[in-house]
Amino acid sequence: MSPVLFKLYTVAGIMIHVLLVLAAPLLRLVAPGWAVESRFGRFSVPFQHNSGECIWVHAASVGEIQAARALIFALRERRKGLHFFVTTMTRPGSEVARSQLPSDISCQLAPLDTPQAVIRAINTVAPDVYICLETELWPMMLTRLKEAGIPMLLLNGRISERSSVRYRLIGRFMARLLQGFAGIGVIQEQDAARFRVLGALPERLKVCGNIKYDLPVAEPGMLRQKYRQDLCLDGATVFICGSTRSHEEKLLLQVYYRLKRITNSELVWIIAPRHLERLVTVQNLLRDAGLAFDLFSHCLQKGRQQNIVLVDGMGELSELYAAGDYIFCGGSLVEQGGHNIMEPVRVHKPVYFGPFMKDFLDAVTLVLSAKAGFQVQNADNLAEIIKEHMSNPQQYKQACKNAEQLALQQQGAAARQVDMVLEQI
Questions:
Q1: Which end of the chain is more exposed for a tag (fewer CB within 10 A), N or C?
Q2: Pairing of strands 129-133, 106-109
Q3: Dihedral (CA of 240, 242, 245, 246) sign
Q4: How many Å apart are CA 326 and CA 323, to the nearest integer?
Q5: CA 213 to chain CA mean position, Å
Q6: Residue range 126-177, pLDDT digits in tens
Q7: Do 21-212+411-422 and 220-410 agree at the fold level?
Q8: Is 58 helix (H, G, I), strand (E, B) or coil?
């Protein structure tokens, strides 16, 4: 942004701020959820500024709170006495932050990007480091922080090709903002390349992986051996459908029939409903179809007798995925927002999922760009893609390798991003 444009942006911000101040009494009456005081930068902080370093973490909304939570917990493990101040742009984001973060962390709605609100907020919070997650860039905030000499970091950064093209239209503006960051930690190399094109300084860029998916997991090969032995799966082809939702199992039943017709080996279908209260519904569906099944808990006690296994416990699925050959992640063939498709990837398995993934769009981008998964449009499409992979094992093996590589890229993401923060304190 040129100096002239920034002056115009500043003047517009001042005018908007004045108008909203005049309208504040009405806003308090008709829109109490708008959090007028927070929007004007009038915060109260629950800590003493001389009692330890303060880190301001800005997360746009609900999706970024997962990353904020992982980062804050990782920082607290490495450094005692840190204070955190978290802001979000949306009220749902603020509510989720309050429910998921420790009670001593202040979670507020972010101030308006106007000179008065930003300056008041910075003076009140007085952060030692400001962190924005993913790509949440507010010109006034970043400019005033830089002027105040407060180090800024962009962490868990990502940028799509479509967004990159749009940002290039304001290239000088983006370059100025990005060059103000002391460090930019991005999820993948593609993100780093796009940030470089937009003017980020290469020496301040670091590929870190996605902190949301840096979760410990046992060695996938050992997990696979354990579960395949427990379920007597030696020589079987295993189709796992995890976190399935209402009406989805009926669609997946047709996929099972089609795969069974073409599978040379024994085909075992493992179904794990997202909610255990739906077990009876799924059992009735299978019985109505004339299909016998075992409960997972009974298999562990007496061995598997049937080719369909219904998972009847919680907390097992993420590791059970290692036993599978073709893994579908549910809540995605029906409009339920999807589920965490990185769980199969963590055990080095490519994942199949449907079109309804609005709650996990970042994971979709990650998995598809790494060619570690396959998004299908419907149940027929799912059956066709799995059939293709059954007949073309080399293609499937490559997808397994891609999944393994993607999982490895996420390991250590938290530690790398924590290192970047501690370097600035």
A1: C
A2: unpaired
A3: positive
A4: 10
A5: 7
A6: 999 999 998 888 899 999 999 999 999 999 998 888 888 999 988 888 999 9
A7: yes
A8: strand
Q: Strand, coil or helix: what is 308?
A: strand
pLDDT higher for 237 or 134? 237
SS (H, E, C) 124-192: HHCCCEEEEECCCCCHHHHHHHHHCCCCEEEEEECCCHHHHHHHHCCHHHHHHHHCCCCEEEECCHHHH
Cα distances (Å, whole numbers) of residue 27 to 19, 23, 114: 11, 6, 18
> Residue 373 has which token pair?
């998964």
The residue assigned the tokens 């444009």 is 5
Q: What is the mean pLDDT of residues 330-357?
A: 96
- Split at pLDDT 50, 70, 90, the class of 39 is confident
* Mean pLDDT, rounded, for 414-418: 95
The domain defined by 21-212+411-422 folds into Rossmann fold (3.40.50)
Cβ atoms of 238 and 324 within 8 Å: the answer is yes
Instruction: State the amino acid at position 108 in one-letter form.
Output: Q
Task: Please tell me the distance from the alpha carbon of residue 290 to that of residue 260, in angstroms, as a whole number.
Answer: 15
Range 399-403 average pLDDT:
97
Q: Just give the CATH number of 220-410.
A: 3.40.50.2000
Whether 118 and 150 have beta carbons less than 8 Å apart is answered as no
Q: pLDDT of 216-236, one tens digit each? A: 677 999 999 999 999 999 999
Sheet containing strand 294-295, edge to edge, reads 294-295, 308-310, 267-273, 237-244, 326-329, 351-353, 373-375
Ramachandran region, residue 238 (left: φ > 0; alpha: ψ -120 to 50; beta: rest): beta
Question: Burial of 181 by CB count in 10 Å (0-12 exposed, 13-18 middle, 19+ buried)?
Answer: buried
pLDDT at residue 84 is higher than 60: yes
C-alpha distance from residue 145 to each of 49, 78, 121, 167, 405 (Å): 17, 25, 10, 22, 37
Q: In which element (H, E) is residue 203 found?
A: none
Q: What are the domain boundaries of the chain?
A: 21-212+411-422, 220-410
Residue owning tokens 């149940």: 379
pLDDT higher for 104 or 206? 206
**DSSP secondary structure code for residue 100 in this structure:** H
Residues 228 and 323: beta-carbon distance below 8 Å: yes
